[in-house]
Design a protein that fits this description.
Layout: E1 4-9, H1 16-24, E2 28-29, E3 39-45, H2 48-52, H3 61-80, E4 86-90, H4 91-96, H5 98-108, H6 123-132, H7 137-149, H8 161-330, H9 337-354
Parallel strand pairs: 1-2, 1-3, 3-4
Helix pairs in contact: 3-7, 6-8, 8-9
Coiled coil: 183-301
Keywords: Coiled coil
């Protein structure tokens, strides 16, 4: 079963970064309610001046010093009792040498990757507090005694209040120089920003002019758009009208196709009838031609027959007169003219009947 740790801090210094790093590296941090026989206390203590950074507003300096002394002495007494249920870590080490502190935590818990924590320190306030407690020798003695029993501590040679104050001065100077550098960078950045602002103002002016022109163009385009919308609606109406006309024409076309099919059928019938009539006319023309030829032949024959009849008639009349003359010569009296004429007329009538 792995070891669980309950975090305990003397003072109000913010160690959230340290706690997050412990959890990130797999250290089981639990609450008071979850402790068991494998639970240990991970106690972070600090020098008096660090404790005063989080001083209570209603407490006097003497009261805060007494509170720190009491808690630190109790922690020392617990350590001296031989109990191994607590791991003592000096936050003064983290303040004086953060890199060394991180490495010590890495070694203590045998972490696979380096422990990395950060602390936000007001070096000027810390220096002021260190100067204000230099006369409290008992507090310094209690702190040094606890360091002797702690698991992670700073170098003993640098743990005196004087050395700590000198370290705070160095840190404040470095912080000031860093602040000056940051200020110089900020001033340069401010100048760059001022230049950028001027450029932005020029760009803003240009953009304002451009925006005005764009708005005017937008209004023109909006008018054109409205015109196009109206034109589109008119075109759509015309399209609907054309569609209706096309549908009507389609219906008419279907009717015409049906009528055309009927007419084609009628034409086919008529063509067949015409073909039949043409054939019949051809046959009739041929018959007519034959009849005409026969007629011509009959007319010729008739004319010839008439001619022959006239000839015969003349011959008959001749022979008739001759016969009558001979008969009359053989009788006692010559026939009268009206008798001859009557006989001739009867003969002609009989001849016509024969014809």
């Amino acid at each position: 079963m792995s070891t669980n740790y309950i975090i305990d801090v003397i003072g109000s210094l913010n160690i959230e970064s340290i706690t997050q790093q412990l959890t990130k590296h797999g250290i089981n941090v639990v609450s008071e309610a979850s402790q068991n026989n494998k639970t240990k206390r991970l106690v972070f203590f600090c020098p008096l001046e660090v404790f005063l950074l989080g001083k209570e507003p209603n407490a006097t300096l003497a009261e805060q010093i007494d509170s720190w002394t009491e808690q630190t002495q109790a922690l020392f007494n617990q350590a001296m009792s031989g109990s191994d249920s607590a791991v003592l870590i000096d936050l003064g080490y983290a303040i004086s040498d953060l890199d060394g502190f991180n490495q010590s935590v890495t070694d203590l818990f045998s972490l696979d990757t380096p422990f990395k924590s950060t602390l936000d320190i007001n070096w000027f306030a810390l220096l002021q507090h260190s100067l204000s407690v230099q006369e409290y020798f008992q507090a310094q003695s209690v702190y040094e005694n606890l360091l002797a029993t702690a698991d992670i501590i700073q170098n003993i040679d640098r743990c005196s209040i004087v050395n700590r104050a000198l370290n705070y001065i160095s840190q404040l100077r470095a912080s000031t120089e860093k602040g000056n550098q940051q200020q110089a960078l900020l001033e340069e950045e401010v100048q760059n920003l001022a230049s950028s602002i001027l450029n932005l103002e020029v760009q803003t002016s240009d953009l304002t002019t451009e925006n005005k022109e764009l708005n005017e163009s937008k209004n023109i385009l909006e008018c054109e758009r409205q015109g196009l919308v109206a034109e589109g609606e008119l075109c759509l109406l015309q399209v609907h009208q054309l569609q209706e006309e096309l549908e009507a024409l389609h219906l008419q076309n279907q009717e015409l196709q049906q009528t055309s099919q009927v007419k084609v059928s009628s034409i086919s019938t008529l063509e067949t009838r015409i073909s039949d009539l043409t054939t019949e006319n051809k046959e009739l023309n041929e018959s007519k031609s034959l009849l005409k030829n026969e007629k011509q032949e009959l007319v010729a024959e008739t004319e010839l027959s008439l001619l022959q009849i006239h000839q015969l008639q003349e011959e008959l009349e001749h022979y008739y007169y001759k016969s009558q003359t001979q008969r009359m010569a053989g009788k006692d009296s010559f026939p009268q003219a009206d008798q001859i004429t009557t006989g001739y007329s009867e003969f002609s009538l009989q001849l016509r009947k024969l014809l």
